[in-house]
Amino acid sequence: MSYTINNKGYYGEFGGAYIPEMLYPNVEELRQNYLKIMSEKGFQKEFNQLLKDYVGRPSPLYLAKRLSEQYQTKIYLKREDLNHTGAHKINNTIGQILMAKRLGKKRIIAETGAGQHGVATATVCALMGIECIVYMGEIDIARQAPNVARMKMLGATVIPATSGSKTLKDATNEAIRDWINNPVNTHYIIGSVVGPHPYPDMVARFQSVISEEIKNQLMVHEGVEKPNYIIACVGGGSNAAGAYYHFLNDLEVKLIAVEAAGHGIESGESAATSVLGKEGIIHGSKTLLMQTQDGQITEPYSISAGLDYPGVGPMHAHLYKSGRAEFISITDDEAMKSGMKLCQLEGIIPAIESAHALAAFDKKTFQSQDIVVVSLSGRGDKDLETYIKYFDL
Ligand SMILES: *Cc1c(COP(=O)(O)O)cnc(C)c1O
């Protein structure tokens, strides 16, 4: 079995491009060009240069000694939290802005929920001097004021989505509407391994720099290329896809995906897509998503905004269905406790998304000789308000 995408744009039975006819030319232009552009020497040179000098890559692979001692196994943290803008999302937006330039696009649109992808998109648009429009639900605008301010400072226009539940899925609908109306001059930067083919594959390739670095860095630290386990949190699944990428077809490397259980899987307030989801179509691809009996998308919940998504990307749906990855769900409380533990054992304040990945150590026992790499997808600065409220600091 293969875990990478096939030439029709599917991972197993998941993926594809289920889009309205009006969007077909936009997506088709991208599909026909993305691999060719990504393989150009000039593209690779510019991408790698920016990852190095602007993002600050390679991100360290850090042996967390005190955490390792606590859990009696060897834990390495892949420090995506040290990237410019504080998370892995910038790897993808750098790649896509260069793609947009090569395609001759003069205008960028994006959707954002909590604002992290909006900030990463506004950042690269400022870097390149390209117009940036970010669609964001009206409710999210109200609850994510610092990120709205960041986007504005970076020169982006933030347009409120006022329909439906006024959150991420409505912002996505607005972005798609915009793209249909502006097919020639606009590129739509999607923020995770979701959306119609070729987005999941393109984003996974841009994020695959994470696993490429893990291989090289493990060689230096341990004299081996592969860890025994890789653990990553999954919202849409881009940091996980990046951390898994070069190990996908190497079954010796075990993959663990961590989803947000919110208040608990049975609570009706969660984002544990693999357990609760059924096959369906969301944002242009066939995947697993949380839905009602009659196919309406269920509003997800997690304390962590980045995991608060009702679906997973098609790669992850396939990794789940095939058993290639083990899926674990972690509640708000478990994640917050693990986040605090990392602060106090290692002096690192993690994003609450990443804290979900760390909580896997309380669910699963590893051997003392195992090498376990955790994707520390982002830093906790953005979550300070949530930490303060939760722990009454
Ligand atoms: C957005 C975000 C995530 C979730 O997105 P994926 O596409 O699943 O990686 C995880 N961690 C951080 C820090 C984020 O900002």
Kindly describe this structure:
With 393 residues, this protein is α/β, with parallel strands linked by helices. It has 2 domains: 11-50 and 89-203, Rossmann fold, CATH 3.40.50.1100; 56-87 and 208-391, Rossmann fold (3-Layer(aba) Sandwich). 42% of the residues lie in helices and 18% in strands. The strands form 4 sheets. The protein has a 6-stranded mixed beta sheet, sandwiched between helices. It has a 4-stranded parallel beta sheet with strand order 7-6-5-8, sandwiched between helices. The longest helix has 15 residues, at 24-38. The model has no long low-confidence stretch (mean pLDDT 96). The structure holds pyridoxal-5'-phosphate. The site of pyridoxal-5'-phosphate (PLP) has 18 residues, from α11 and α15.
Which helices and strands appear, and what pairs or packs with what?
Layout: E1 10-11, E2 14-15, H1 24-38, H2 41-55, E3 61-63, H3 65-71, E4 74-79, H4 89-102, E5 107-112, H5 116-128, E6 131-137, H6 138-143, H7 145-153, E7 157-161, H8 168-181, E8 186-188, H9 199-207, H10 209-222, E9 229-233, H11 238-244, E10 254-262, H12 273-276, E11 278-282, E12 285-289, H13 314-322, E13 325-331, H14 332-346, H15 352-358, E14 371-376, H16 384-391
Parallel strand pairs: 4-14, 5-6, 5-8, 6-7, 9-10, 9-14, 10-13
Antiparallel strand pairs: 1-2, 3-4, 11-12
Helix pairs in contact: 2-4, 4-5, 4-9, 5-7, 9-11, 10-11, 14-15
The structure holds pyridoxal-5'-phosphate.
